[in-house]
Amino acid sequence: MSLDKLISLILTLLVLAVFCFAQDSKSTPDPEKEKAKKEQDEKVMQMLDQVISDAALLRLPQNKAIVFAMAGDLYWKFDEKKSRDLFRSAASEILAHNADVEREKRESTDDMFTSFFDFNDPRQQVLPLVAKNDGELALELLLQTRPAIVAEAILKASAPNARSEGMFNFNPDYQRVRQEIALEQRFALLAADENPDKAIKMIKDSLSRGISFNAFELLQKLNKKDEKKASDLAGEIIRKIIDTDLTRREDELQAAVAFLQVSTRDIPPEVESKGKMFRFSEAQAKEVANKLVSTFMQPGNSTSMSMAMTRALPSLEKLVPDKANLLKQRQAENRKNLPTEYRRMERMEKLWSPNSTAEEILAEIPKLQNEYEKSTAYQAVAGKIAQIDDEARAKKLIDQIGDEKARTQALERFESAKISRAASAGKLEDAKKMIGGLTNKKLQVQKLVSLAQNYHKKGTEADIESANGLMKNARSLINESPEDEDELNNLMEVVRGYATVDPDVAFRLFEPIVDQINDIVHATAILSKYNKRTRSFKKGEMILRVNNSPFDGVLLFRYLNQIQLLGKADLAKMASLSDRFQRSDARSIVKLVAIQGFSKDEKKPDGPTQTDYIFTEY
After folding, report:
1. Domain span at residue 369?
2. Whose CA, among 157, 191, 290, 413, lies 20 to 30 Å from 589?
């Protein structure tokens, strides 16, 4: 053997040895890491068990349902059986809540609108958590917890002579049915991953009560696994559309228009390449187009029909151009007799259209009749200006805004977007300089925190140092003993940043705030006793919800994101702090949210999926 060949053989063996060692080290578990993970898991389960036990202290069935559902969701990776038991306990509490609501409605003297709807319905929050883990169980509990009033509304809607209402005719039964069918089909979509055939049956059963655009997502899922089943189900949906009197069924009409739009929409190659894309056949799309044309040509001139025609026309021009021209003539005739409200809505739709330019919206503002319309238009134009890269053009448009307050807000929004674009492009130093030029303290704090997080993600020693410097700048702008709501919001924004950049500082800032939050929640609870229409408290108890809201009446709910981040940074510290929340309702939600933060998986899909792309407009 030559020397060269011998050297080559030795190098090959060395490479293989290194590769095998690396693979072996990957597959060999680290005892210390495993021990630490086991201890963390035990800590999480102990906290969850404590929250579940403390649920007995809660008075409202709806709050118990929320606690059981959130705990069940978090318990899933440890013990699926226990999770399912918790989900069923949540369903039992929903039934108790439904009974309370029915009794309250019978005894209520409130106006019709508030008596028709349960604005704090836990069912709409609990069932999606169940579906996230077990689609079939969610469908089972959907039926089990269906309120009697919804079941009755579905029966009425299934009657041969049933008619859905137009957008200006409020029909609570119709709204209930629409919401319930959408929820059922949504869960069927999730169940499709577990049992496609059962999901198809569910969709077919749901189709017997109406057509929903949600069915398209199921077709997309099925198409990846079985093109034949997807095609067969598509045929049933098309037949249902053809057999339905769309002049009497607004929801089905809107779904048919959406099906038509997605059938004629161009899908970018980068989205198409991610897998088999479901499409209705050209023949099926033309069937829907012809059905819509015959519907729009029927006698009558309802507002909802005219708006549906406007949405459908671009697709109809592609599929049945000769008939689309007839519809345009019909549309022109209809417009003469349509109510003022329709023309107002048409204007508003144009304001928010992705195709409208900032210049076009500004030209419309002098024609608007009331302050609400003008305010909406100013928001729309500010959003358009914020997207403009050309600073000279943007500043020129901002100067054309007549209202001083709207002009200031548009400028701030543009500056904020410009900073975000610079940061996204990696121009962090440019973004830092721009932040220094801001005059709005709240916006300045937000942008400093956001930029600090961007630096911190880069992970180098210099970048982490820069992140800390930015957070110090943000901290210098706040009052660490806030005296009003704005100052508290600014402080909590800084807590949000430090939770990532330097958790020890975040906890030092947050710890004194716990007592203030206790005082605020207690004071809000007292005031709620004298406000019958409050939707934040009931019988002295804070109404819990799964998701936070920046506009919630209870200040605590605005800061759940910060609590999540603190839980992720150090669950043990956050567990200790959560025990300082005096009320059982506040303590329960804080613990659950902290565990959510600790358990959160930060993995995200690479880029938009086909379904994301399709649903951007619908």
Report:
1. 339-408
2. 191
